[in-house]
Known about the structure:
Residues 17-371 form the AMP-dependent synthetase/ligase domain. It is built from 16 helices and 27 strands.
Amino acid sequence: MAAFPSNFGDLAYVPMRAFPERPAVIQGQVTLTYGDLDARMKRVANLLRALDVQAGRRVALLFPNEWPFVELCFGAMRAGAVPVPLNVRAGYETLRYCVEHSDAEVLVASQALLEQAVRLREDVPAVRTLVVTGAPPADALSYERLLEAASPEFPTVQVAPDDVCMQPYTSGSTGKPKGVLLTHGGQFWNADAVRRIMMFDETERALVAVPLYHKNAMASAVKPILMAGGALVILPGFDAANVIAAIDRYRCTYMTGVPAMFRLILNQTALLAQHDVSTLRWAACGSAMVPPDLLQEFEETFHAGISEGYGLTEGGPVVFESPRFGPRKIGSAGLPLPGCEVRVVRADGQEARAGEAGELWTRNPGLARYYKAPEITAQKFDAEGWLHTGDLARGDADGYYTILGRLDDMINVGGENVYPKEVEDTLLLHPAVREAVVVSVPHALKGEAPVAFVVLRDGQAATAEDLKQFFFSRGPAYAHPREVFFIEAPPLGSTGKIDRAALQRRARETIGMLKGGM
């Protein structure tokens, strides 16, 4: 591993010294140079010390996509504190749980979320101080005033590689969110590995329209771009028209997003024709499985490469990434990052050969345990340090890996394993199908069987029987979708992933139990 500072708050130590005058963070009319960002991070560290936040203590951050989040997150690290980025799209009870569970002493919040912040301060006794941007209420402090009063000089707290630098919470499909203990050393490794495989440098301008608190933004843009010396162009949220205009206005070269976002951008054909988006040369699409036709359409429209990757908050976060240059394998999540070990393990406990499916395990410097959850940590990590991800994968002879879905999503049809992604990929070959999501329902004879939710392309038509027959001509009969539901768009969760659980509930409520020999 390269020689880095001990504290991940110093992730931009090279550009801050090499070219402090270059832009680091841009939002609207605000531009912070690397010199500005360095000084403001030091002020944040002094601000927290003035509030008696000691090393190792938690500071919760409640922000939509606003640029102060960046200086707060890494400035807190410089003080030795642990930022807890909160998912502002979560319901209030989830927010309250995360703040309470994290043991946060200080809550720093955006004026835009003042009502929630005040309520959290009242409902969580451990939060002794509320700091807000803009005009504070009577029982809170002004972020701007505290920052102005703080010194722009601060010696970064020295930490050990295994010390915790950040505590995000996983959304999870079941149970309470889990606090994940990311470490300083692990995040330096992961951010630098992503920077190298994506070949980011100081010429990069990364458009960030995904939530800053989410791993998609942090792992695929914020961390590696700041290490590389590029600029972050932050939008307040996702709007396809605003994204297209921002690429033109700020001459963005890179963006990251989820499949639904890229689909909406590509639908804006008139706006794409009106704006110059020729500076965009690379994009990353993740957080959900990406339809192959979406990748192809993006590359044809932007004349720019788009890659898939794979990660999970406690797994690095990034495990696989498609190299910027090299063999392209559409549908694959790419190669393991340098320094990342992976295994694909069959149900019988044996390691899978190339082409065989199994559960993905990983072991790398970025693995993270769970906060106050030793039982869950013990379930997910084995004695040799491997994280059992719960995701199904298949490797090929070239070392590329394809994610097949969650292990829990695998459908056992009369003893045959059916992977939803493979059924979806086959349906997507039909010229009328834009999106497909496959879930399971009970079957009287087979135990369970797949059904499909399908979004048709504009101006195209197909019946359920058409799609069933199409699948029969290309896939195994036991895997064919027994029912096909046509929808306008799949429901999305708070992180932009397709809400499969909602679709499965809908299918089971509608169908009940399937009968018949097939």
